[in-house]
Structure to design on (203 residues):
């Protein structure tokens, strides 16, 4: 049995076209819109298969394939002073803000999508469980993780998403290395916010 890899599933010039589509929408676009654009650009690819966006396992595999490639592309464009924000509701290529270049965040979603085993090993039942978890909310985040993240942001239990965002901006501004703060503390704040974003399902 042939072991499938991302490069075997994508057209040869996929990254170039993907980058062009991202540059063409500086305000960002949804994953759905990007998938449709890729189907148009590559009519003989997996992205253009009839019904691909309606079949749960096919949709998961397309989603995973796209995000896998987006995270790989994010590493490439970072060398050009660009940031690729990757969320289902908005995928946006933008210039890196001044003073943020040194911050490296250990993003668990990045680790997940760059691990190709998840694409290969996930079956239909797994996808159904993922969908159920999504509609119940609180995707793949435990209560202890949330409590710890709130503590890092110096927030009480039960703080809502808006309060988290406000406190995140305040603390990151206060502890940013360019303003005399600690890189480790800034990374801790970023990591906490990533967990809370997953918990609340917000970008």
């Amino acid at each position: 049995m042939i072991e499938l890899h991302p490069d075997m599933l994508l057209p040869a010039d996929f990254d170039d076209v993907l980058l062009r589509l991202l540059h063409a929408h500086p305000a960002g676009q949804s994953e759905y819109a990007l998938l449709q654009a890729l189907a148009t650009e590559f009519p003989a690819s997996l992205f253009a298969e009839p019904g691909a966006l309606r079949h749960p396992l096919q949709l998961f595999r397309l989603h995973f394939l796209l995000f896998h490639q987006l995270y790989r592309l994010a590493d490439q464009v970072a060398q050009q002073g660009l940031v690729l924000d990757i969320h289902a509701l908005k995928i946006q290529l933008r210039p890196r803000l001044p003073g943020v270049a040194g911050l490296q965040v250990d993003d668990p979603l990045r680790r997940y999508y760059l691990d190709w085993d998840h694409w290969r090993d996930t079956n239909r039942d797994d996808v159904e469980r993922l969908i159920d978890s999504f509609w119940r909310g609180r995707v793949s985040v435990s209560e202890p993780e949330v409590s710890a993240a709130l503590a890092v942001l110096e927030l009480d239990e039960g703080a809502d998403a808006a309060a988290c965002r406000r406190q995140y901006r305040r603390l990151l501004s206060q502890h940013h290395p360019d303003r005399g703060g600690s890189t480790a503390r800034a990374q801790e704040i970023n990591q906490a916010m990533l967990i809370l974003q997953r918990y609340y399902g917000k970008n």
